[in-house]
Structure formats: structure tokens, C-alpha cells
Design goal:
By secondary structure, the chain is α/β, with parallel strands linked by helices. The protein has helices at 17-24, 37-50, 61-72, 86-89, 94-99, 115-121, 151-164, 175-182, 186-190, 216-228, 237-249, 254-271, 297-305, 329-343; strands at residues 5-6, 54-58, 78-82, 102-106, 132-138, 167-172, 195-199, 210-214, 285-289, 309-310, 312-315, 318-322. It has two domains: 17-249, Aspartate Aminotransferase, domain 2 (3-Layer(aba) Sandwich), CATH 3.40.640; 253-343, Aspartate Aminotransferase, domain 1, CATH 3.90.1150. Bound molecules: pyridoxal-5'-phosphate.
Length: 344
């Protein structure tokens, strides 16, 4: 059987030979002592890209988000986010468990919060009410099918949260995809948020690693929280080198992933127009709505797998296809043919 075409996630990429060479050659030291030159260089580069004073390398995007939320929301206070946000869907209740954070969610089309709907929900301290301390957005939105927040909406959210005196966090696991899709500079996004967490291990193709961005004032708290969560790594420069290589060599390639996602959506929509709407494909994620196509995500995934195509089922009637570095045009063609036949 030929290699499987794995469209489950952009986390499945494996390091290229060039990335492995960069890792092998990395200068390293003990990062808990702040002495790993490769980690220090990565943190300085990413802080500079987003125009933030400080950056902290962390093992996962989940840890990056969890630390940022704790920088912004004291225990017993409230975070507002959309109901499908990664921070309340895929982080095992960490904000509540580790930070004592109360989360309140708003159902939002494709995961994108409407600034006026959020403004209506912000609560000041008062009679037994849980005061809102921060709002979190996700750029691009994972369960929203790779949807990109328009810059204007983010600006409105920034103004509104600043006026209300609450923080604004960005789960920027795929903010690179938003940057490449829209041309908005990373520093323009960076300037809008108090904290961000950005992943090196999604479309950028590094094996491990995320970076959180914060202010100089927040940096030592961020490092303490990282250590407390068990994220103080030693010769982590091996991993930081992979991230630096990814930023240099893989960022612009995300445009190819976007082109392939659009092509995949076009082909599937030609066979099954009710399942896939190509106009909703903004980045590297294609959402499939199976309500008119047998209603059975797991059965579709099993049938596709038997023909060499892996997809992920994100709800009983929703599936997701994600393009990435390790899927080329031939793989996308095969996936489009298999899925068109199964869904058509
Ligand atoms: C992948 C992802 C994360 C972080 O995931 P880790 O597996 O912990 O690195 C955070 N937010 C979103 C939207 C993601 O897709």
C-alpha cells in the first residue's frame, strides 16, 4: 500500500532532513538557567516578529495558552471566549483546574466573536457576579474551519476590551496562516493583544514547541508558571533550532497549503455541493458538513482510511481535512478523488 495521505491535522508533519541537520548542529545550554543560546535566539526572534517585549519558549500550545490565561485572569475571575475555542474544548479543563479560572462562552459563527456581543457580556465586579478579566480569540479558528478574524474585528475587540479594562489574549496556534492568507504583518496582529501563544509544530512543521508573547513586566511570572507546570526544559535548543529553521524556511510555504486546501474543497464541492462550501476555505482547513451525506463521520473516516486517506471527525456530523507540508499535489488529488466518490 502506498503512503497514507494524512489530512487529520497539520501536527502530523515530520522534520525534514534540513531541519534535522539544523537541530543536530544547534548550540545548546541549560535553558532553566537561561543559558541556551538557541532558545534565547528563538525567543528574541519571535518577540521581534510580533513586536512584543518578551517571548517564552514552551513545549506546547496548550501550555502557552494556559500560562497566558493565568497572566491575565486571577483565580476566581472570568475568561470570555467562543464556545468552540481550543482553550475550552481541547485543554482538558486546564484553566479551571490550574488557574481557578471561570470560563464563560459565547456561541459564535465559525468561532469568530462579535465585538458587540462580547461587550454585552463583560461583567464588572458587583453583587456576587464573577468579574470578567480577559477575552480570548483564536486566529485562525480551528473548529471554525480555519476562519480568519478580519483585522477590523480584532481592532474593535481591542478597543472594547481596553475601554472595559479587561485583557485580550490570542490563541495564535495558526496565526502564521492568517498572516500568509491576508498579508497582515505579524507585528500588526501582535500589537492588538496583551498576550499571544503561537505554535511552531502546526503548519510550520517543527516537531515540538510553541512560543508565548507577553510584556517585560509579565515575563518573570510567565517563566515561573512555566516551571510550575513542569515546562522548564534543559538543552531545549535542539527544539528551538527546529523552530528557527521552520520560521526561516516554512513560513511562506503555507501559501501552498492554502492553495491545496482550496483545490481540495473545489473538487469535493463539485461532487458533493452540500457537504463542502469552497467559499468558506480561507486557509489550510476544509470543513465537511455531513448532515446530508449519511450523517456518519466515523463511517466516512473508516471508508476513506481503507483507501489510504486519513481525515478527522470533529463532531458526529463534521469532518475536517487539513493540508500541510507533508501532503503534495498528488496526495491532495488522491484525497479529492476518494472523498468525492464516497460523498458524491
Ligand atoms: C493545536 C492547537 C493548540 C495547541 O496545541 P498543542 O497540541 O498543545 O501544541 C492551541 N490552539 C489551537 C487553536 C490549536 O489548533
Amino acid at each position: 500500500m502506498p503512503d497514507l495521505v494524512d489530512l487529520r491535522s497539520d501536527t502530523v508533519t515530520c522534520p525534514t532532513d534540513a531541519m534535522r541537520a539544523a537541530m543536530a548542529g544547534a548550540a545548546v545550554g541549560d535553558d532553566v538557567y537561561g543559558e541556551d543560546p538557541s532558545v534565547n535566539a528563538l525567543e528574541a526572534e519571535v518577540a521581534d516578529l510580533f513586536g512584543h517585549e518578551a517571548a517564552v519558549f514552551v513545549p506546547t500550545g496548550t501550555m502557552g495558552n494556559q500560562i497566558c490565561l493565568r497572566l491575565l485572569v486571577p483565580g476566581g475571575l472570568e475568561l470570555i471566549c467562543d464556545a468552540d475555542a481550543h482553550v475550552v474544548t481541547y485543554e482538558d479543563g486546564g484553566a479551571a483546574q490550574h488557574g481557578g479560572i471561570s470560563s464563560r462562552t459565547i456561541v459564535a459563527a465559525r468561532g469568530r466573536l462579535d465585538p458587540s456581543a462580547v461587550a454585552d457580556q463583560i461583567r464588572p465586579a458587583g453583587y456576587h457576579m464573577v468579574p470578567t478579566a480577559a477575552v480570548a480569540v483564536e486566529q485562525t479558528h480551528n473548529r471554525g474551519g480555519g476562519a480568519v478574524y478580519p483585522l477590523e474585528t480584532l481592532r474593535e475587540l481591542r478597543t472594547m476590551t481596553a475601554d472595559a479594562g479587561v485583557g485580550l489574549h490570542c490563541d495564535g496556534a495558526r496565526i502564521w496562516n492568517a498572516h500568509i492568507a491576508t498579508g497582515v504583518p505579524l507585528a500588526t496582529y501582535g500589537a492588538l493583544f496583551d498576550t499571544l501563544s503561537v505554535c511552531l509544530s502546526k503548519g510550520l512543521g517543527a516537531p515540538v514547541g510553541s512560543v508565548l508573547l507577553c510584556s517585560a513586566e509579565q515575563e518573570s511570572s510567565a517563566r515561573t508558571l512555566r516551571h510550575r507546570l513542569g515546562g522548564g526544559m534543559r538543552q531545549a535548543g535542539i527544539l528551538a533550532a527546529a523552530g528557527r529553521h521552520a520560521l526561516r524556511h516554512h513560513l511562506h510555504g503555507l501559501a501552498e497549503d492554502h492553495r491545496r486546501a482550496a483545490a481540495l474543497a473545489d473538487q469535493i464541492a463539485a461532487a458533493a455541493p452540500k457537504v463542502c462550501d469552497p467559499t468558506l476555505v480561507e486557509t489550510n482547513i476544509v470543513a465537511l458538513d455531513l448532515t446530508t451525506a449519511g450523517d456518519d463521520g466515523p463511517a466516512l473516516a473508516a471508508a476513506a482510511r481503507s483507501e489510504g486517506v486519513l481525515i478527522s471527525v470533529v463532531a458526529p456530523r463534521r469532518a475536517r481535512l487539513v493540508t500541510h507540508l507533508d501532503v503534495d499535489d498528488t496526495g491532495v488529488d488522491l484525497a479529492a478523488r476518494v472523498l468525492s466518490r464516497l460523498l458524491g
